[in-house]
């Protein structure tokens, strides 16, 4: 299969030179041709082609992808086009580029193992990822019987509900719904927003810090209303997590999270006592 760069001379001019999309064995096996006649810019076409190859596992996390020169040869495009495509993928958090090192596929998964009681933002930061969040809504709701029992309150107790999409390096990892006892945190909604750490607000404004928590993970299919927020298909498997967090005196937060299975994993260290 070959890709041709169209000539600029009108009429039956000799077509431009054919460029192999496979190239030599050290180039980019499996490359597919781009379409110079398409309304989609070549850099955007190349971005999507490379993205599909990463998502298919052709270049796993930590692997070095072909060099700019090899990509130029394989896809029949200029170095500027290749750099635009790679730059866009790097900004999406999928690639890591370093001068003199090359370009590598980033591991977009957050691994949960034995850890302290910390915020989601702190958990990502500890793993070298850029934390972020997008607030979906903030409001007051009555506590259900189940949540009230977990928080040690009466059913119907007024709770503050904060729903957010949690991001790692700009990519959606989870959808999280946090329920907090309203009487303990008056005016909390005014201090919340995109990319704001809830635990940091609770610590600095209300003197509340997490000391311990109970967390339960289950495998689940993503519900219809959650899947689009995580950019996955309905029913895609992932994790459903519930967490009750305590400040050393009482429970102050009940959290429910839906987490992408391809970007969040749980790793446990097991050891016999004898």
Structural description of this entry:
Keywords: DNA-binding, Transcription, Transcription regulation. It holds the Pfam family GntR. This is GntR family transcriptional regulator. InterPro entries: Bact_HTH_transcr_reg, Chorismate_lyase_/UTRA_dom_sf, Tscrpt_reg_HTH_GntR, UTRA, WH-like_DNA-bd_sf, WH_DNA-bd_sf. The protein is of the alpha+beta class and 274 residues long. It has two domains: 2-105, Winged helix-like DNA-binding domain superfamily/Winged helix DNA-binding domain (Arc Repressor Mutant, subunit A), CATH 1.10.10.10; 110-266, Chorismate lyase-like (Chorismate lyase), CATH 3.40.1410. Helix content is 23%, strand content 31%. It contains seven helices and twelve strands. It has helices at 42-55, 68-75, 79-91, 120-126, 145-151, 198-206, 227-230, and strands spanning 2-4, 18-20, 95-98, 102-105, 110-112, 131-142, 158-168, 171-181, 212-221, 237-246, 251-260, 264-266. The strands form four sheets. The chain has a six-stranded antiparallel sheet with strand order 6-7-8-11-10-9. The protein has a two-stranded antiparallel sheet with strand order 1-2. The chain has a two-stranded antiparallel ribbon with strand order 3-4. β7 and β8 form a beta hairpin. α1 crosses α3 and α2 (68-75) crosses α3 (79-91). It is elongated and about 65 Å long. Residues 1-27 have low confidence and may be disordered.
């Amino acid at each position: 299969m070959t890709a041709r760069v169209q000539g600029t001379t009108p009429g039956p001019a000799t077509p431009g030179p054919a460029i192999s999309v496979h190239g030599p064995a050290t180039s980019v096996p499996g490359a597919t041709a781009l379409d110079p006649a398409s309304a989609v810019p070549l850099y955007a076409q190349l971005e999507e082609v490379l993205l599909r190859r990463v998502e298919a596992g052709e270049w796993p996390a930590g692997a070095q992808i072909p060099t700019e020169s090899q990509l130029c040869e394989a896809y029949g495009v200029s170095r500027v086009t290749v750099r635009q495509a790679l730059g866009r993928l790097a900004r999406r958090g999928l690639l890591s580029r370093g001068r003199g090192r090359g370009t590598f596929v980033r591991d977009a998964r957050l691994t949960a193992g034995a850890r302290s009681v910390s915020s989601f933002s702190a958990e990502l930061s500890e793993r070298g990822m850029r934390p972020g969040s997008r607030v979906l809504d903030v409001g007051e709701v009555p506590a259900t019987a189940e949540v009230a029992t977990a928080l040690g309150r009466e059913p119907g107790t007024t709770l503050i509900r904060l729903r957010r999409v949690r991001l790692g390096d700009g990519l959606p990892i989870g959808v999280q719904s946090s329920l907090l006892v309203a009487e303990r945190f008056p005016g909390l909604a005014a201090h919340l927003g995109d990319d704001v750490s809830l635990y940091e607000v609770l610590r600095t404004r209300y003197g509340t810090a997490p000391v311990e928590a109970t967390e339960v993970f289950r495998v689940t299919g993503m519900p219809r209303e959650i899947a689009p927020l995580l950019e996955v298909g309905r029913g895609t498997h992932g994790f459903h997590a519930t967490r009750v967090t305590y400040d050393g005196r009482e429970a102050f937060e009940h959290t429910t999270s839906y987490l992408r299975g391809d970007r969040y994993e749980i790793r446990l260290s097991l050891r016999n006592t004898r």
